[in-house]
Design goal:
Length: 466
């Protein structure tokens, strides 16, 4: 197999970015090496997402674009894996019969066997399993970036949000042992990583299954997730810990306290709101209400100096009235989000929301979407503008995507910052930067101290939540 090259295109969320790094690691242990693009790669893998309908369309569009390359070079291997493959199963092979292998969310570890079976086969090899045998985290990884790693703390989800297909595709929640997570992080730091992002569909229910199975496993006075944040605070050389996503219903004060007290835990909270209307939250089976959500926002801002809060919001859920949408606008404004991902509701097969009444005219949904996007853009612009003049720690990620004279990095609050490229701005370097100008989705700055003192943030001004 040596000498063969691969290219992976990843759709969807950070969980998929994590899985792609594992798929790359598995391929590299088989002797594959990375290729710069799908045209030159001997193996092209699409790691897919099914969260919204346009994710489906994009995959099939990109697969069609690959067909001529595959027909011109039958030795090229085309693999489709991940959430959309889990959802569509044999349909992928029917719609794109030139594909060689289809695997789901539970069997990345089986790639070598599936590829071996595909050698010379005329029909796609399809294997979709119902549950995960080997945690992807246990597989070798080839990281995209040397200084950053995704670390999965749990897989699956036990919630029943009526719009969401993820539990069907990723199965019930299973947590990794705290010691295993910490050991992985320590090994990553020894390998040059200084920032980790902890991943779970619902990070703050982390460990409940472990404690249920072994009541002695949990700490007495705090949740296992808070315990994990404290444990990672003791890892020398680990400068930044991020996590996504907590669920508002499971949020506990000990996590805010950890974000305040553990120096390497970053001051960024991604807290999905989904809707500002209590009626719609009920229909979504999201069991918190808007007042509770706003209390959490206020508590975060009061506890964690300079915290930035981002969110996910769905517009046009079935039955959403003008008044419900106004509630979303109102809560968005009160929360003063620093960043927001906004989505038009997309019906997903097998989810409870599909059977609800009150599905909306797409034109109405789109008009609401544009109003909300305008509001969240204004809030993001104001949030970034408040940073101008402050000095903040920036972790340089690499060359700016738009300007080779600049590098891009992130503040601890996850703001994107562009800096002039200098001898001190290699990827993975922490610098202090004075922020000089702001746009809604990025800032410009200049380096004030190369190699910033680690773990000591300059708090940015906070915004009152209400
Ligand atoms: N587990 C994460 C969410 C993962 S999906 C959490 O609970 O925070 C990421 C986001 O996609 C969700 O927060 C939601 O805003 C959006 N989303 C999920 N299903 C959707 C659908 N059917 N239509 C539109 N947006 C959806
Ligand atoms: Fe989906 Fe809800 Fe689970 Fe998030 S918490 S993955 S939105 S079911
Ligand atoms: Fe993520 Fe998309 Fe799957 S959001 S969990 S890759 S459906």
């Amino acid at each position: 197999m040596s000498g063969r090259t691969y290219f992976i295109r990843t759709f969807g969320c950070q969980m998929n970015a994590h899985d792609s790094e594992r798929a790359a690691g598995v391929l590299e242990t088989m002797g594959y090496r990375p290729a710069p693009d799908p045209a030159t790669a001997d193996l092209v893998l699409f790691n897919t997402c099914a969260i919204r309908e346009n994710a489906d369309q994009r995959l099939y569009g990109q697969l069609s674009a690959l067909k001529p390359l595959k027909l011109a070079d039958p030795g090229k291997t085309v693999v489709v894996g991940g959430c959309l493959a889990q959802k569509d199963q044999a349909t992928v092979a029917q719609r794109a019969p030139w594909v060689d292998v289809v695997y789901g969310t539970h069997n990345i570890a089986r790639l070598p066997q599936l590829l071996a079976r595909a050698d010379g086969a005329t029909l796609p090899v399809v294997e979709i399993l119902d549950h995960t045998e080997t945690f992807p985290s246990a597989l070798p990884a080839r990281r995209e970036v040397a200084h950053h790693a995704w670390v999965s703390i749990s897989i699956g989800c036990n919630n029943t949000c009526t719009f969401c297909i993820v539990p069907r595709l990723r199965g019930p929640e299973r947590s990794r042992k705290l010691g295993d997570v910490v050991a992985e992080v320590r090994a990553l730091v020894a390998d040059g990583v200084c920032e980790v992002s902890l991943l779970g569909q619902n990070v703050n229910s982390y460990g409940r299954d472990l404690v249920a199975a072994d009541p002695g496993a949990g700490p007495r006075n705090r949740t296992l997730f808070a315990e994990l944040l404290h444990a990672l605070g003791d890892v020398d050389g680990l400068e930044r810990v991020r996590f996504t996503s907590p669920h508002p219903k499971d949020f506990t004060a000990d996590v805010f306290a950890a974000m305040r007290d553990v120096p390497n835990v970053c001051e960024h909270l991604h807290l999905p709101l989904q809707s500002g209307s209590d009626r719609i939250l009920r229909r979504m089976q999201r069991s918190y209400r808007s007042a509770r959500y706003l209390d959490l926002v206020a508590e975060a801002r009061a506890t964690i100096p300079g915290v930035a809060i981002s969110t996910d919001i769905i517009v046009g859920f079935p039955g959403e009235s003008d008044d419900d949408f106004d509630d979303t606008l109102r809560v968005t404004e009160l929360a003063a989000f620093d960043a927001a991902f906004t989505f038009e509701y997309s019906p997903r097969p097998g989810t409870a929301a599909v059977a609800l009444d009150g599905h909306l005219d797409p034109a109405v949904v789109n008009a609401r979407y544009r109003r909300l996007a305008e509001l969240t853009r204004t809030l993001a612009a104001a949030s970034n503008a408040r940073q101008v003049g402050t000095v903040q720690q920036v972790l340089v990620d690499g060359e700016s995507k738009t300007d080779p004279q600049r590098v891009s990095g992130r503040t601890r609050t996850n703001r994107l910052v562009h800096l002039p490229r200098t001898a001190a701005t290699d990827p993975g370097t922490l610098v202090n930067a004075r922020l000089t100008s702001a746009a809604p989705f990025y800032l410009h700055g200049e380096v004030t101290t190369a190699r910033a003192q680690l773990g000591v943030p300059t708090p940015a001004p906070s915004t009152a939540a209400r």
